[in-house]
Amino acid sequence: MVKLFASPSNYVQGPDVLMHSADRIGKFGKKVLLLSSPSVLKIIGNDFAEYLKKNDFDVEVVNFTGESSESEIDRVTKIGQTNVDNVVIGLGGGKVSDSAKAIADNLNTTVVIAPTIASTDAPCSRLSVIYTDKGQFDHYRFYKKNPDMVILDTKVISHAPVKFLIAGMADAMATNVEATDTRKSDGTNMLGGKSTLAGEAIGQKCEQTLFKYGSLAVAANVVGSATPELDKIVEANTLLSGIGFESGGLAAAHAIYNGFTALSGEIDQLSHGQKVAFGTLCELVLTGSDHRRFEKYLSFDLEFGLPTTLEDLKLGTASDEELMKAATQACDPSDTMVNLPVSVTPTDVMNVMKAVSEFSHEYQIKNGLGD
Protein backbone atom coordinates (compact mmCIF):
# COMPACT_ATOMS: atom_id res chain seq x y z
CA MET A 1 0.00 0.00 0.00
CA VAL A 2 1.47 3.33 -1.09
CA LYS A 3 0.21 6.54 0.49
CA LEU A 4 0.46 9.75 -1.53
CA PHE A 5 0.03 13.39 -0.55
CA ALA A 6 0.51 16.52 -2.65
CA SER A 7 0.24 20.29 -2.29
CA PRO A 8 1.29 23.49 -4.09
CA SER A 9 4.90 24.52 -3.51
CA ASN A 10 3.88 27.94 -2.18
CA TYR A 11 0.57 29.23 -0.85
CA VAL A 12 0.03 32.94 -0.13
CA GLN A 13 -3.23 34.32 1.26
CA GLY A 14 -4.20 37.70 2.66
CA PRO A 15 -5.44 41.19 1.81
CA ASP A 16 -3.52 43.06 -0.94
CA VAL A 17 -1.09 40.19 -1.57
CA LEU A 18 -1.67 40.32 -5.34
CA MET A 19 -0.23 43.79 -5.72
CA HIS A 20 2.71 42.85 -3.50
CA SER A 21 3.66 39.66 -5.32
CA ALA A 22 6.39 40.84 -7.70
CA ASP A 23 9.29 39.57 -5.60
CA ARG A 24 7.65 36.17 -5.15
CA ILE A 25 6.78 35.75 -8.82
CA GLY A 26 10.08 37.20 -10.00
CA LYS A 27 11.93 34.22 -8.56
CA PHE A 28 10.44 32.10 -11.34
CA GLY A 29 11.11 34.41 -14.26
CA LYS A 30 10.23 37.73 -15.86
CA LYS A 31 8.44 36.76 -19.08
CA VAL A 32 4.82 36.30 -18.11
CA LEU A 33 1.79 34.97 -19.95
CA LEU A 34 -1.18 36.35 -18.01
CA LEU A 35 -4.35 34.37 -18.78
CA SER A 36 -7.59 36.00 -17.68
CA SER A 37 -11.14 36.65 -18.84
CA PRO A 38 -12.26 40.06 -20.15
CA SER A 39 -14.42 40.66 -17.06
CA VAL A 40 -11.59 39.89 -14.62
CA LEU A 41 -9.14 41.99 -16.65
CA LYS A 42 -11.51 44.91 -16.30
CA ILE A 43 -11.88 44.45 -12.53
CA ILE A 44 -8.28 43.72 -11.52
CA GLY A 45 -6.32 42.04 -14.31
CA ASN A 46 -5.27 45.12 -16.28
CA ASP A 47 -4.12 46.81 -13.08
CA PHE A 48 -2.19 43.68 -12.14
CA ALA A 49 -0.54 43.57 -15.56
CA GLU A 50 0.54 47.20 -15.20
CA TYR A 51 1.86 46.48 -11.71
CA LEU A 52 4.00 43.65 -13.08
CA LYS A 53 5.27 45.81 -15.95
CA LYS A 54 6.29 48.54 -13.51
CA ASN A 55 8.32 45.87 -11.73
CA ASP A 56 10.23 44.98 -14.92
CA PHE A 57 8.15 42.04 -16.09
CA ASP A 58 7.50 41.39 -19.77
CA VAL A 59 3.76 40.64 -19.75
CA GLU A 60 1.63 39.13 -22.51
CA VAL A 61 -2.06 39.42 -21.60
CA VAL A 62 -4.21 36.70 -23.17
CA ASN A 63 -8.01 36.71 -23.07
CA PHE A 64 -9.54 33.44 -21.86
CA THR A 65 -12.50 32.40 -24.00
CA GLY A 66 -14.40 30.70 -21.19
CA GLU A 67 -13.84 26.94 -21.50
CA SER A 68 -10.96 24.77 -20.29
CA SER A 69 -10.99 22.73 -23.49
CA GLU A 70 -8.17 21.21 -25.49
CA SER A 71 -8.66 23.73 -28.30
CA GLU A 72 -8.41 26.71 -25.93
CA ILE A 73 -5.38 25.22 -24.19
CA ASP A 74 -3.66 24.58 -27.53
CA ARG A 75 -4.46 28.12 -28.73
CA VAL A 76 -2.86 29.78 -25.72
CA THR A 77 0.05 27.31 -25.67
CA LYS A 78 1.05 28.49 -29.14
CA ILE A 79 1.11 32.08 -27.88
CA GLY A 80 3.37 31.06 -25.01
CA GLN A 81 5.68 29.18 -27.37
CA THR A 82 5.98 32.19 -29.68
CA ASN A 83 6.78 34.54 -26.80
CA VAL A 84 9.02 32.02 -24.98
CA ASP A 85 7.20 32.78 -21.73
CA ASN A 86 8.65 31.27 -18.56
CA VAL A 87 5.79 31.99 -16.13
CA VAL A 88 2.10 31.32 -16.77
CA ILE A 89 -0.29 33.14 -14.44
CA GLY A 90 -3.94 32.11 -14.31
CA LEU A 91 -5.97 35.02 -12.90
CA GLY A 92 -9.66 34.29 -12.40
CA GLY A 93 -11.91 31.32 -11.65
CA GLY A 94 -11.63 27.55 -11.76
CA LYS A 95 -11.56 27.08 -15.52
CA VAL A 96 -8.85 29.71 -15.89
CA SER A 97 -6.87 27.85 -13.22
CA ASP A 98 -7.29 24.50 -14.95
CA SER A 99 -6.34 25.97 -18.33
CA ALA A 100 -3.28 27.77 -16.95
CA LYS A 101 -1.99 24.52 -15.42
CA ALA A 102 -2.39 22.70 -18.73
CA ILE A 103 -0.71 25.49 -20.71
CA ALA A 104 2.24 25.62 -18.31
CA ASP A 105 2.55 21.85 -18.53
CA ASN A 106 2.64 22.07 -22.34
CA LEU A 107 5.32 24.76 -22.09
CA ASN A 108 7.21 22.87 -19.35
CA THR A 109 7.35 26.03 -17.28
CA THR A 110 6.18 27.62 -14.03
CA VAL A 111 2.52 28.15 -13.21
CA VAL A 112 1.14 30.65 -10.71
CA ILE A 113 -2.56 30.51 -9.89
CA ALA A 114 -4.20 33.72 -8.65
CA PRO A 115 -7.92 33.14 -8.00
CA THR A 116 -10.15 36.21 -7.92
CA ILE A 117 -13.04 34.18 -6.50
CA ALA A 118 -13.11 31.34 -3.97
CA SER A 119 -15.54 29.24 -5.98
CA THR A 120 -13.65 25.96 -6.50
CA ASP A 121 -10.79 23.86 -5.18
CA ALA A 122 -9.04 23.80 -8.58
CA PRO A 123 -6.17 26.24 -7.82
CA CYS A 124 -4.06 23.95 -5.60
CA SER A 125 -4.29 20.61 -7.40
CA ARG A 126 -2.03 18.87 -9.91
CA LEU A 127 -4.91 18.07 -12.23
CA SER A 128 -7.29 19.88 -14.54
CA VAL A 129 -10.86 19.11 -15.51
CA ILE A 130 -10.97 19.24 -19.30
CA TYR A 131 -14.25 19.96 -21.05
CA THR A 132 -15.37 19.89 -24.65
CA ASP A 133 -15.81 23.24 -26.38
CA LYS A 134 -19.52 22.93 -25.58
CA GLY A 135 -18.87 22.53 -21.84
CA GLN A 136 -19.37 18.79 -21.42
CA PHE A 137 -16.99 16.94 -19.10
CA ASP A 138 -14.35 15.17 -21.18
CA HIS A 139 -11.56 13.93 -18.91
CA TYR A 140 -9.18 14.68 -16.06
CA ARG A 141 -5.66 15.73 -17.02
CA PHE A 142 -2.93 14.94 -14.50
CA TYR A 143 0.47 16.59 -14.00
CA LYS A 144 3.78 15.71 -12.38
CA LYS A 145 3.56 18.57 -9.90
CA ASN A 146 1.15 20.96 -8.24
CA PRO A 147 1.22 24.70 -9.02
CA ASP A 148 4.43 26.45 -8.11
CA MET A 149 2.50 29.19 -6.32
CA VAL A 150 -1.09 29.99 -5.39
CA ILE A 151 -1.92 33.59 -4.47
CA LEU A 152 -5.28 34.47 -2.92
CA ASP A 153 -5.98 38.14 -2.32
CA THR A 154 -8.80 38.14 0.22
CA LYS A 155 -9.51 41.83 -0.41
CA VAL A 156 -10.22 41.06 -4.07
CA ILE A 157 -12.28 37.98 -3.16
CA SER A 158 -14.31 39.90 -0.55
CA HIS A 159 -15.65 42.17 -3.30
CA ALA A 160 -16.62 39.32 -5.63
CA PRO A 161 -20.30 38.33 -5.90
CA VAL A 162 -21.27 36.21 -2.90
CA LYS A 163 -22.65 33.47 -5.16
CA PHE A 164 -19.08 32.46 -5.97
CA LEU A 165 -18.09 32.04 -2.32
CA ILE A 166 -21.21 29.95 -1.71
CA ALA A 167 -20.46 27.78 -4.75
CA GLY A 168 -16.95 27.23 -3.37
CA MET A 169 -18.39 26.23 -0.01
CA ALA A 170 -20.63 23.70 -1.73
CA ASP A 171 -17.69 22.25 -3.64
CA ALA A 172 -15.60 22.12 -0.47
CA MET A 173 -18.40 20.46 1.52
CA ALA A 174 -18.06 17.41 -0.72
CA THR A 175 -14.39 17.00 0.23
CA ASN A 176 -14.69 15.10 3.50
CA VAL A 177 -17.75 13.13 2.36
CA GLU A 178 -15.95 11.82 -0.72
CA ALA A 179 -12.62 11.27 1.03
CA THR A 180 -14.31 9.32 3.83
CA ASP A 181 -16.08 7.06 1.36
CA THR A 182 -12.87 6.57 -0.62
CA ARG A 183 -11.13 5.35 2.54
CA LYS A 184 -14.04 3.06 3.40
CA SER A 185 -13.87 1.47 -0.04
CA ASP A 186 -10.06 1.24 0.10
CA GLY A 187 -10.12 3.31 -3.06
CA THR A 188 -7.38 5.49 -4.47
CA ASN A 189 -7.03 9.24 -4.30
CA MET A 190 -6.49 11.50 -7.30
CA LEU A 191 -2.74 10.82 -7.06
CA GLY A 192 -3.25 7.09 -7.58
CA GLY A 193 -2.41 6.11 -4.01
CA LYS A 194 -4.00 5.78 -0.59
CA SER A 195 -4.77 8.70 1.71
CA THR A 196 -2.30 9.78 4.38
CA LEU A 197 -3.34 10.75 7.89
CA ALA A 198 -2.61 14.34 6.90
CA GLY A 199 -4.98 14.09 3.95
CA GLU A 200 -7.68 12.66 6.19
CA ALA A 201 -7.24 15.40 8.80
CA ILE A 202 -7.35 18.16 6.19
CA GLY A 203 -10.68 16.91 4.83
CA GLN A 204 -12.16 16.85 8.31
CA LYS A 205 -10.87 20.34 9.14
CA CYS A 206 -12.32 21.62 5.87
CA GLU A 207 -15.79 20.38 6.79
CA GLN A 208 -15.59 21.68 10.36
CA THR A 209 -14.59 25.12 9.12
CA LEU A 210 -17.47 25.33 6.66
CA PHE A 211 -20.10 24.44 9.24
CA LYS A 212 -18.60 26.79 11.86
CA TYR A 213 -17.76 29.91 9.86
CA GLY A 214 -19.82 29.71 6.66
CA SER A 215 -22.64 32.02 7.74
CA LEU A 216 -20.35 34.76 9.04
CA ALA A 217 -18.12 34.54 5.98
CA VAL A 218 -21.07 34.96 3.62
CA ALA A 219 -22.26 37.97 5.62
CA ALA A 220 -18.80 39.51 5.35
CA ASN A 221 -18.71 38.89 1.61
CA VAL A 222 -22.10 40.57 1.18
CA VAL A 223 -20.70 43.83 2.58
CA GLY A 224 -17.24 43.42 1.00
CA SER A 225 -15.31 42.93 4.25
CA ALA A 226 -12.21 40.72 4.47
CA THR A 227 -12.95 39.46 7.99
CA PRO A 228 -11.18 36.61 9.83
CA GLU A 229 -14.21 34.40 9.14
CA LEU A 230 -14.05 35.11 5.42
CA ASP A 231 -10.34 34.38 5.50
CA LYS A 232 -11.03 30.96 7.05
CA ILE A 233 -13.65 30.06 4.45
CA VAL A 234 -11.44 31.18 1.58
CA GLU A 235 -8.75 28.84 2.89
CA ALA A 236 -11.26 26.02 3.35
CA ASN A 237 -12.66 26.46 -0.17
CA THR A 238 -9.26 26.63 -1.80
CA LEU A 239 -6.39 25.08 0.16
CA LEU A 240 -8.11 22.60 2.48
CA SER A 241 -10.53 21.40 -0.17
CA GLY A 242 -7.89 21.42 -2.89
CA ILE A 243 -5.46 19.28 -0.94
CA GLY A 244 -8.27 17.33 0.68
CA PHE A 245 -9.93 16.14 -2.52
CA GLU A 246 -6.67 15.39 -4.30
CA SER A 247 -5.01 13.53 -1.45
CA GLY A 248 -8.26 12.11 -0.06
CA GLY A 249 -10.09 11.09 -3.22
CA LEU A 250 -13.33 11.82 -5.06
CA ALA A 251 -16.39 9.58 -5.19
CA ALA A 252 -20.06 10.07 -6.12
CA ALA A 253 -20.57 13.83 -5.63
CA HIS A 254 -18.17 14.82 -8.40
CA ALA A 255 -19.09 11.85 -10.59
CA ILE A 256 -22.71 13.03 -10.48
CA TYR A 257 -21.57 16.55 -11.31
CA ASN A 258 -19.76 15.13 -14.33
CA GLY A 259 -22.96 13.30 -15.23
CA PHE A 260 -24.93 16.55 -15.21
CA THR A 261 -22.59 17.99 -17.85
CA ALA A 262 -24.06 15.45 -20.29
CA LEU A 263 -27.31 17.43 -20.18
CA SER A 264 -27.95 20.76 -21.86
CA GLY A 265 -30.43 23.53 -21.27
CA GLU A 266 -31.08 25.70 -18.22
CA ILE A 267 -28.90 23.48 -16.03
CA ASP A 268 -25.93 24.98 -17.85
CA GLN A 269 -26.61 28.19 -15.94
CA LEU A 270 -25.64 26.54 -12.66
CA SER A 271 -22.09 26.56 -11.31
CA HIS A 272 -19.82 23.61 -10.61
CA GLY A 273 -20.37 23.99 -6.86
CA GLN A 274 -24.14 24.16 -7.15
CA LYS A 275 -24.26 20.85 -9.01
CA VAL A 276 -21.75 19.26 -6.63
CA ALA A 277 -23.98 20.25 -3.69
CA PHE A 278 -26.80 18.09 -5.04
CA GLY A 279 -24.30 15.33 -5.83
CA THR A 280 -23.14 15.34 -2.21
CA LEU A 281 -26.70 14.83 -0.97
CA CYS A 282 -27.05 11.94 -3.41
CA GLU A 283 -23.82 10.39 -2.18
CA LEU A 284 -25.04 10.50 1.42
CA VAL A 285 -28.17 8.56 0.42
CA LEU A 286 -26.31 6.11 -1.81
CA THR A 287 -24.08 5.15 1.13
CA GLY A 288 -26.93 4.85 3.64
CA SER A 289 -26.20 7.85 5.85
CA ASP A 290 -28.64 8.24 8.74
CA HIS A 291 -31.31 10.96 8.79
CA ARG A 292 -29.49 13.20 11.25
CA ARG A 293 -26.33 13.33 9.14
CA PHE A 294 -28.24 13.85 5.89
CA GLU A 295 -30.36 16.65 7.33
CA LYS A 296 -27.25 18.46 8.58
CA TYR A 297 -25.96 18.78 5.02
CA LEU A 298 -29.42 19.49 3.64
CA SER A 299 -29.90 22.35 6.12
CA PHE A 300 -26.54 23.80 5.14
CA ASP A 301 -27.50 23.77 1.47
CA LEU A 302 -30.91 25.30 2.14
CA GLU A 303 -29.40 28.08 4.26
CA PHE A 304 -27.27 29.22 1.35
CA GLY A 305 -29.79 28.64 -1.42
CA LEU A 306 -27.97 25.70 -2.96
CA PRO A 307 -29.83 23.18 -5.14
CA THR A 308 -31.55 20.42 -3.20
CA THR A 309 -34.29 19.48 -5.70
CA LEU A 310 -34.47 18.67 -9.39
CA GLU A 311 -36.41 21.89 -9.82
CA ASP A 312 -33.47 23.83 -8.33
CA LEU A 313 -31.27 22.16 -10.94
CA LYS A 314 -33.66 23.27 -13.72
CA LEU A 315 -34.54 19.60 -14.21
CA GLY A 316 -38.05 19.67 -12.81
CA THR A 317 -39.52 18.55 -16.12
CA ALA A 318 -36.64 16.25 -17.07
CA SER A 319 -37.66 12.82 -18.32
CA ASP A 320 -36.34 9.57 -16.90
CA GLU A 321 -34.41 9.20 -20.12
CA GLU A 322 -32.59 12.49 -19.50
CA LEU A 323 -31.88 11.67 -15.86
CA MET A 324 -30.63 8.24 -16.91
CA LYS A 325 -28.27 9.90 -19.38
CA ALA A 326 -26.70 11.89 -16.53
CA ALA A 327 -26.68 8.86 -14.21
CA THR A 328 -25.04 6.67 -16.85
CA GLN A 329 -22.22 9.14 -17.39
CA ALA A 330 -21.80 9.47 -13.62
CA CYS A 331 -21.28 5.70 -13.42
CA ASP A 332 -18.68 5.57 -16.19
CA PRO A 333 -16.04 3.04 -15.03
CA SER A 334 -13.31 5.64 -15.59
CA ASP A 335 -14.96 8.13 -13.23
CA THR A 336 -14.79 8.34 -9.44
CA MET A 337 -18.08 6.59 -8.63
CA VAL A 338 -15.89 3.49 -8.21
CA ASN A 339 -14.66 4.93 -4.90
CA LEU A 340 -18.02 4.40 -3.21
CA PRO A 341 -17.98 1.66 -0.56
CA VAL A 342 -21.12 0.20 -2.20
CA SER A 343 -21.80 -0.87 -5.78
CA VAL A 344 -24.33 1.26 -7.64
CA THR A 345 -25.91 1.21 -11.08
CA PRO A 346 -27.13 4.12 -13.20
CA THR A 347 -30.67 3.15 -12.17
CA ASP A 348 -29.67 3.44 -8.50
CA VAL A 349 -28.24 6.90 -9.13
CA MET A 350 -31.31 8.09 -11.03
CA ASN A 351 -33.63 6.82 -8.31
CA VAL A 352 -31.59 8.57 -5.62
CA MET A 353 -31.67 11.85 -7.54
CA LYS A 354 -35.46 11.68 -7.53
CA ALA A 355 -35.64 10.58 -3.88
CA VAL A 356 -33.34 13.39 -2.66
CA SER A 357 -35.44 15.92 -4.54
CA GLU A 358 -38.69 14.63 -3.08
CA PHE A 359 -37.29 14.45 0.46
CA SER A 360 -36.12 18.06 0.21
CA HIS A 361 -39.57 19.19 -0.91
CA GLU A 362 -41.17 17.41 2.05
CA TYR A 363 -38.51 18.67 4.49
CA GLN A 364 -39.05 22.27 3.42
CA ILE A 365 -42.83 22.00 3.75
CA LYS A 366 -42.51 20.32 7.17
CA ASN A 367 -40.15 23.04 8.41
CA GLY A 368 -42.08 25.97 6.97
CA LEU A 369 -39.38 26.92 4.48
CA GLY A 370 -41.85 27.94 1.80
CA ASP A 371 -41.39 25.11 -0.71
Automatic annotation (TrEMBL):
<feature type="binding site">
    <location>
        <position position="127"/>
    </location>
    <ligand>
        <name>NAD(+)</name>
    </ligand>
</feature>
<keyword id="KW-0560">Oxidoreductase</keyword>
<feature type="binding site">
    <location>
        <position position="125"/>
    </location>
    <ligand>
        <name>NAD(+)</name>
    </ligand>
</feature>
<feature type="binding site">
    <location>
        <position position="131"/>
    </location>
    <ligand>
        <name>NAD(+)</name>
    </ligand>
</feature>
<feature type="binding site">
    <location>
        <position position="272"/>
    </location>
    <ligand>
        <name>glycerol</name>
    </ligand>
</feature>
<dbReference type="GO" id="GO:0046872">
    <property type="term" value="F:metal ion binding"/>
</dbReference>
<keyword id="KW-0520">NAD</keyword>
<dbReference type="Pfam" id="PF00465">
    <property type="entry name" value="Fe-ADH"/>
</dbReference>
<feature type="binding site">
    <location>
        <position position="254"/>
    </location>
    <ligand>
        <name>glycerol</name>
    </ligand>
</feature>
<feature type="domain" description="Alcohol dehydrogenase iron-type/glycerol dehydrogenase GldA">
    <location>
        <begin position="8"/>
        <end position="154"/>
    </location>
</feature>
<dbReference type="InterPro" id="IPR018211">
    <property type="entry name" value="ADH_Fe_CS"/>
</dbReference>
<feature type="binding site">
    <location>
        <begin position="116"/>
        <end position="119"/>
    </location>
    <ligand>
        <name>NAD(+)</name>
    </ligand>
</feature>
<dbReference type="InterPro" id="IPR016205">
    <property type="entry name" value="Glycerol_DH"/>
</dbReference>
<comment type="similarity">
    <text>Belongs to the iron-containing alcohol dehydrogenase family.</text>
</comment>
<feature type="binding site">
    <location>
        <begin position="94"/>
        <end position="98"/>
    </location>
    <ligand>
        <name>NAD(+)</name>
    </ligand>
</feature>
<feature type="binding site">
    <location>
        <position position="121"/>
    </location>
    <ligand>
        <name>glycerol</name>
    </ligand>
</feature>
<dbReference type="InterPro" id="IPR001670">
    <property type="entry name" value="ADH_Fe/GldA"/>
</dbReference>
<feature type="binding site">
    <location>
        <position position="171"/>
    </location>
    <ligand>
        <name>glycerol</name>
    </ligand>
</feature>
<comment type="pathway">
    <text>Polyol metabolism; glycerol fermentation; glycerone phosphate from glycerol (oxidative route): step 1/2.</text>
</comment>
<keyword id="KW-0479">Metal-binding</keyword>
<protein>
    <recommendedName>
        <fullName>Glycerol dehydrogenase</fullName>
        <ecNumber>1.1.1.6</ecNumber>
    </recommendedName>
</protein>
<dbReference type="GO" id="GO:0008888">
    <property type="term" value="F:glycerol dehydrogenase (NAD+) activity"/>
</dbReference>
<keyword id="KW-0862">Zinc</keyword>
